[in-house]
Every structure is written in C-alpha cells, then in structure tokens.
Task: structure prediction
Amino acid sequence: MNAQYSAKNTNMKRLPNLSLMAFTALLALSFGLLSQPLQANAVPPGTDDDIRERLTPFGNLCRAGEDCGSSAAAVDTGPLSGEAVYNQFCFACHATGASEAPIFADAEAWAPRIDKGMDALMNSTLNGIGMMPPKGTCMNCSDDELQAAVDYMVESVQ
Ligand code: HEC
Result:
C-alpha cells in the first residue's frame, strides 16, 4: 500500500517535467516552422537592381516645374508668359468673377482700375487687394511674370 502510493507519487511528480519538455519541443518546432517563411520573405529573389525595378511605380507623374530627369526638363524654360501665369493662377478668379474679381476682357470692370495707372495695379497684384491674395496666389512668380500677367489682362480690354 505504501509502495503503491509512493510509485504513484513519483509518476505524478514526473508528469509536469514531461509536459514541460513536450511544450518546449513544440515551441521550438513551431518557431522553426514559423521562422522559415519569414526568412524566405526577408530576402526577395534577384539582385538589388531587379528588386528596385519591381518596386518602381507604374507611370511616373512629373509635374510642371519639377526636374523629371528627361532632356526636356533640362532645357531652361525661362520666365512664364503673361498668358501662362494668367491661365495657371489668375484664371481661377478672373475668368469667373469669383469674389467679385474684375473679369478677363470685361472692359467695364477694368476701366476704373486701369484709370488708377499701372503702378497701382502692380502694387495691388504684389501685395493683394480686397479678396485677392498677394501675387494672385503665384508665390513663385517673379515681379516680371506678374507684370506680364497684368499686361495680358489689361490688353484684353484694349
Ligand atoms: C483668389 C482670387 C484671385 C486670384 C487667384 C487673382 N485675383 Fe486678381 N483680383 C481678385 C479680386 C477679388 C480683385 C478685386 C479686389 C478689390 O478691388 O477689392 C482682383 C483685382 C485684381 C487687379 C486690379 C487691382 C486694382 O488695384 O484694382 C489686378 C491687376 C489683378 N487682380 C491681377 C491679378 C493677377 C495678375 C493674378 C494672377 C497672378 C490675379 N489677379 C489672381 C481676385 C483674384
């Protein structure tokens, strides 16, 4: 009775040890299995150049004024014409009359403004006037480019 009891007792004592070993083995096994695909993904096939080529997005977007590495972009386009500045920046308000901007080619709207003289018109353009922001929103425009845009608008009513 006493021997039986002690045998049972040692069995029970060994049990946690066995399950711990089994658990450790399982952990090691699953870690090995899991790390296998991770390692395979960590190093994609091909040379660095192959990989870079695959990662290049389709269709490169190149916006005006950006150096896009093409020979065309290397050519100095020079200052924008008055018409180009108008079409890109001033058009938004002066074609529609937004915020009561004097509309392009509207002689009646421009007459009192032209009467103020070109210096006054340029002063308003550079510093803004009423609802019109400074430089008519073309913050990168040179004074010459803005002058050309004002000329372009003034000429439209003459
Ligand atoms: C966000 C709208 C807006 C944009 C963009 C804009 N303007 Fe204007 N502009 C106005 C408004 C509004 C007025 C009238 C302001 C007033 O008299 O209170 C005006 C008036 C003017 C006048 C007359 C100023 C005067 O003293 O009477 C000139 C010149 C002018 N704009 C040039 C330009 C040029 C050049 C550009 C582009 C580079 C431009 N504007 C872009 C809104 C705009």
User: Anything to note?
Assistant: Helices lie at 2-42, 48-55, 71-74, 82-94, 107-115, 118-127, 143-155. The chain has a mean pLDDT of 81. The longest helix spans residues 2-42.
